């Protein structure tokens, strides 16, 4: 797979031991990188005509930065994790990787490999602090925000959400069954994604998905219709649930969704995470990549294709320019269309930020001396709200994937936006029996934030992009072999 030009380089390894910074230099293989577009770094002498900037960047190599707090683990990390940059016979090459681990509910180590972005001055190494679109792991933050408002008695878990939204939400196939906050959080609401689950700025309101004759009705594609799919009874993973939850958060808090999360969760935890990437500087963001074109064709020998947060930063759906976004938000109506901020998957965060959220859960709602949630609220989040029955007919277990594929069995138990994984059922004979958290996959990213409730050890991982379809070599579990490799590294380190 000739996509990397291997050369030996030395890099600093910074270890925080006994509060002293010690720099060592370790030799390892570092990979040159190629990216499509005007900032492309060509390989094998392939230079497109007219792209002078490409020629200037030919000599630039990715330097991999590693910052962590446990030097003894470095050798293992080098043997296992660094190989993921080049790929193996069963895992595609990756453009970048962040990992953060916790031990006993406390921060343990942070690692970063690969490239964050390409600039006119060359490739920028991925650091432990770079913010990446973390995909569906975002849902944990939304659930925490929802429970914060629940504690303030803004609503209850089992009340009809119609009053909270300001309009009637009913599945027309089950007109007498109310849809509740609990059913939205647990994907048992009977809401479905349909062809899409977001609305661009100025192109409609979220209620337009759910009313016959509305522009986004899509012939009822946003509702489950089978008798077994009555709200509260059947699990089917749907991102649109979180657009509705974001609208509820806005109306209950009287704050825009992204601002409420920033003010009430991220700032108290000293996180620079954000649901609006235009609140972050370009240097803080990492681009996601794939070696897949717009038609879905993978080319492992081709160029890395920027997916999200490349040259242009989208503040939210439909707004690429910061000034345009600010102007639009001046007249934004709370509760109208919080899908703008991609509550289901648009959080920009680092793996370290995600592990801090895991620590919050592992420490019963408190972190860094700040009490964010009551212990009882954390227990409510983590407890199973739905589990697959013995007959296997009360839920769809493949998540967003098509049933019958490699992802079947991915969803068998779910809390309130918390994925509950039976590791033994997945074939992991060592390590924790159960992991709690969430998985994510979108725009080249593979991510997870998972912890063991018994030991309070955990891991957050973000892969910024893959060079080939990872499902060509599926894992031994519903995870990809790439995800399994990182989990095995963590379990066995």
Written overview of the protein:
Among the domains are: 63-130 and 277-314 and 350-383 and 418-492, no CATH class; 142-254, no CATH class. 21% of the residues lie in helices and 20% in strands. A hairpin with a 2-residue loop joins strand 4 and strand 5. 48% of the residues are buried. Helix 4 packs parallel to helix 7. Mean pLDDT is 85; it is low at 1-33 and 37-74. It has 493 residues and is α+β, with helices and mostly antiparallel strands. The two termini are 29 Å apart. The chain has a 7-stranded antiparallel beta sheet with strand order 6-5-4-18-17-16-15, with helices on both faces. Strands 2-1-3 form a 3-stranded mixed beta sheet, with no helix packed on it. Strands 9-8-19 form a 3-stranded mixed beta sheet, with no helix packed on it. It is built from 12 helices and 19 strands. The longest helix is centred in the first third of the chain and has 14 residues, at 138-151.
Structural class: alpha+beta
Q: Could you name the ranges where pLDDT drops below 50 across 5 or more consecutive residues?
A: 1-33, 37-74
Q: What is the CA–CA distance across the termini?
A: 29 Å
Quote the beta fraction: 15-25%
Q: In angstroms, what is the radius of gyration?
A: 22 Å
General shape? globular
Total helical segments: 12
Specify the biggest β-sheet: 7 strands, antiparallel
Strand sequence of the main sheet, in spatial order?
Answer: 6-5-4-18-17-16-15
Query: What is the count of β-strands?
Result: 19
Helix proportion range? 10-25%
Give the overall average pLDDT: 85
């Amino acid at each position: 797979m000739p996509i990397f030009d291997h050369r030996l380089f030395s890099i600093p390894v910074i270890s925080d031991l006994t509060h002293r910074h010690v720099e060592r230099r370790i030799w390892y293989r570092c990979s040159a990188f190629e990216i499509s577009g005007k900032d492309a770094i060509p390989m094998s002498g392939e230079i497109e005509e007219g792209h002078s900037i490409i020629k200037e960047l030919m000599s630039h190599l990715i330097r991999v930065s590693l910052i962590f707090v446990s030097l003894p683990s470095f050798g293992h990390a080098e043997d296992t994790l660094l190989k993921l940059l080049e790929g193996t016979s069963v895992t595609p090459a990756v453009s970048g990787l962040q990992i953060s681990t916790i031990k006993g509910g406390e921060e343990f180590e942070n690692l970063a490999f690969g490239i964050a972005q390409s600039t006119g001055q060359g490739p920028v190494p991925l650091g432990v602090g770079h913010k990446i679109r973390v995909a569906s792991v975002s849902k944990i933050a939304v659930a925490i925000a929802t429970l914060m408002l629940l504690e303030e008695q803004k609503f209850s878990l089992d009340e009809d959400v119609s009053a909270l939204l300001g309009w009637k939400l009913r599945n027309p196939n089950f007109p007498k069954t109310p849809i509740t906050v609990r059913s939205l959080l647990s994907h048992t609401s009977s809401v479905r994604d349909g062809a899409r689950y977001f609305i661009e700025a100025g192109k409609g309101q979220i209620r337009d998905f759910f009313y016959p004759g509305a522009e986004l009705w899509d012939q009822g594609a946003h509702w489950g219709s089978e008798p077994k799919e009555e709200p509260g009874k059947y699990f089917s993973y749907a991102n649109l649930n979180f657009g509705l939850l974001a609208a509820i958060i806005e109306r209950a808090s009287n704050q825009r969704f992204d601002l409420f999360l920033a003010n009430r969760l991220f700032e108290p935890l000293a996180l620079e995470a954000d649901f609006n990437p235009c609140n972050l500087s370009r240097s803080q963001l990492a681009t996601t990549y794939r070696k897949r074109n717009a038609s879905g064709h993978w080319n492992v020998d081709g160029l890395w294709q920027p997916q999200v947060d490349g040259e242009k930063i989208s503040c939210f759906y439909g707004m690429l320019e910061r000034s345009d976004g600010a102007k639009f938000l001046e007249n934004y109506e709370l509760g109208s269309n919080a899908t703008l901020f991609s509550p289901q998957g648009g959080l920009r965060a680092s793996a370290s930020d995600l592990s801090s959220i895991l620590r919050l859960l592992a420490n019963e709602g408190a972190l860094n001396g700040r009490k964010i949630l009551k212990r009882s609220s954390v227990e409510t989040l983590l407890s199973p709200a739905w589990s697959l029955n013995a007959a296997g007919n009360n839920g769809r277990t493949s998540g967003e994937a098509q049933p019958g594929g490699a992802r079947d069995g991915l969803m068998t138990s779910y809390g309130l936006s918390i994925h509950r994984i039976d590791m033994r059922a997945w074939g992991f004979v060592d390590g924790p029996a159960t992991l709690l958290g969430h998985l994510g996959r979108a725009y080249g990213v593979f991510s997870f934030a998972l912890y063991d409730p018994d030991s309070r050890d955990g891991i957050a991982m973000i892969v910024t992009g893959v060079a080939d379809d990872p499902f060509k070599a599926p894992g031994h579990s519903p995870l990809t072999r790439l995800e399994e490799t990182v989990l095995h590294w963590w379990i066995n380190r």
